[in-house]
Amino acid sequence: MKNYILVKHGNFIKVLAITIIIGLTISALTYLKYNKNVKTNAFVYENQINQNSTKEIILGASRLIIEDEKINTMSPVVSDNSSADIVTNTNEQETIDFNQSPIADFSKFGKFTIDGMTTEDYNTSKNLQWTRIKPDGEPEDLEIDLTRQYTYKELEDFMINLAKYDNVYLDIIGTTEQGRKIYSLSIDYSNGVAKDVVLTTGQTHALEFAGSVYILNQYSELIKQAQTDPSIKHKLENVSYHAIPVVNPDGREIIINCGDAIQKSNANGVDINRNFNSINAGQKANSINQNNSVKIAPGLGNFPGYTLGSEAETQAVMKWLETYITTSSGKVYLFDYHQMGRVTYSDKPWRPSSLENLTKNIQEQILSFLNSGVTSNHYAYVPEGSTYGLDGVGGTLTDYFVSVADGFKYNEDYQRMMYEVNGVGIPLFQFEDVDRFMESYKPANPNCIAMTIEIGPGPALGYGPTARNIMNNEYTDYNFSSLLVFIADLMLEK
User: Fold this and answer.
1) Which of 350, 354, 319 lies closest to 427, judged by CA?
2) What is the pTM for the complete model shown?
3) Range of weakest confidence among 52-66, 156-170, 223-237
């Protein structure tokens, strides 16, 4: 909503003062709104479906800019991690002082735009214990109907039923602010074979429902196929699958229960996909302009929290990622399902060039697979640019995954991940690229890649009937039903 003020005949100072007061009032009310969990139904309309109140997004709402047309034509302005006004970085950072004090002055290189992860929160994440669910009885022949709406309780029941199959496991890995359980679902044949690992995560952003139901449908189909198809069973004997179908169950249920249909954040108003304590989280190089998408107070999205790693969901996922990265001796590929645009992201420009090239190669093959048999509106790769992670954003789930894989360590002095070069912890805005200091590169697992898949077009957002029908068609038309099998084939190639 825009307010237009007509200024004339010397009233400028008065109007300016009034405008400032109005602005401060709106900011204060916004802050109070999210801290009191007050819900708003603006820019949405209701549909009563099976006596459950659901919402669909009106495209073009001022609080959610959907640029689907630009995305599908490979416009450079497509990623919410990008900045429209970026200055190319200089080479003035070539010299690194390895005699820094425990708390060094990095001001000539850049600054931190958010406080790091407190030692207490970091230790909480490290010490999380998982609880395995072992349901009794035989599994029922249940299916996910992508055209209908599911509550989180129904998804829980579906996962518990899958855990009744042999070699399928369900673990509670965390608990949300509102007391909901966060689950990890695994397909892992206990045959003593060292396996490659496929990780999938869904619905980190509350309004992006496709990821959760796609993962559960993919797992259900894979488990059932393995009961009768020897070729599928062979793949599962050599590749293990682990998923967090719903990273953000609180945000998901807030939308279903009459909350704001364009909410990305969790119950605390924190965008989980900006809250991870990754190597690039909340860092801005001096030569790069600040990305203005970052919010400074709780809200519907893009607020990274007051400190990194503050959220229960973030802490649970951190422990989960670290577990599979550090315990696997083989490849670990992560696919983070998001929604809107039919694009993929994978750029982590600070990574060794060999891993960046490997990631692009895998990404090209997956794009070719998704687009097979489709004549138009293809999935496409969108580069995030060489300055990604240096403009004050970062902190995504995939950022943290590669940070752990590349051996970056939590530094208690700065309470964030740093790169240890000659025994000195330095931030990303100082070293910029691991290739410059490969002699210090000690990865936790050198065989890890990560990729974000943005599922479907803009109208597929939300959980109304139109969105669900689009999700259903997308799943079949773009080969998501067999994507996990294709990924196994890629991993098993010699």
Assistant:
1) 350
2) 0.82
3) 52-66
